């Protein structure tokens, strides 16, 4: 069912620490674009769909980037707070074309994520063909 005559949103569940509620991702369809929004998920291997195929079938994909890599939470088992590391997502899409990689915009950064302050880390992501979402930016 359309949200408005110009926007249709289709929610779907994603696996992510569902001890208190379900976690959702969203397809967002506008007149000219198809968006994917998955801000929280355990790991791409637990997703019922192949994330490579899903991203190929949208124009823009906003994907979970809570943590950049293992070890961001000292004295905490990272398996207790599962998310796909940015490095894992980049490796998963490594063999894809630049057109596919450019669709990905990383979102939902934990305060420990070096993407927030480490310019070298940010540049590695951008040079690999991916994007870092910016709050308030227009994604048309």
Brief overview:
The chain has 4 helices and 7 strands. The chain is α/β, with parallel strands linked by helices and 140 residues long.
Task: Give short descriptive properties of this protein.
Metallo-beta-lactamase, Chain A, 7-stranded mixed sheet, 19% helix, 4 helices, 140 residues
Description:
This protein has 140 residues and is α/β, with parallel strands linked by helices. It has one domain (2-132): Metallo-beta-lactamase, Chain A (4-Layer Sandwich). Helix content is 19%, strand content 24%. The protein has four helices and seven strands; from the N terminus they run E-E-E-E-H-E-H-H-E-H-E. It has helices at residues 51-56, 86-92, 98-101, 119-127; strands at residues 2-4, 7-14, 23-29, 34-38, 60-64, 104-107, 131-132. The chain has a seven-stranded mixed β-sheet with strand order 1-2-3-4-5-6-7, covered by helices on one side. A hairpin with a 2-residue loop joins strand 1 (2-4) and strand 2. The longest helix is centred in the C-terminal third of the chain and has 9 residues, at 119-127. The radius of gyration is 15 Å and the shape is globular. The protein starts with a strand and ends in an 8-residue tail after the last strand. The mean pLDDT is 90.
């Amino acid at each position: 069912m359309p949200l408005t005559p110009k926007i249709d949103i289709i929610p779907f569940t994603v696996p992510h620490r569902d001890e208190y509620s379900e976690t959702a991702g969203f397809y967002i369809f506008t007149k000219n674009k198809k968006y994917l929004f998955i801000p929280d998920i355990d790991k791409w291997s637990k997703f019922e769909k192949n994330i490579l195929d899903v991203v190929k079938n949208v124009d823009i994909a906003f994907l979970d980037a809570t943590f950049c890599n293992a070890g961001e939470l000292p004295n905490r088992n990272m398996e207790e707070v599962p998310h796909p590391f940015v490095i894992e997502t980049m490796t998963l899409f490594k063999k894809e074309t630049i057109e596919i990689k450019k669709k990905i915009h990383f979102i939902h950064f934990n305060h420990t994520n070096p993407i927030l302050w480490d310019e070298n880390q940010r540049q590695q992501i951008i040079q690999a063909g991916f994007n870092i979402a910016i709050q308030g930016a227009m994604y048309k």
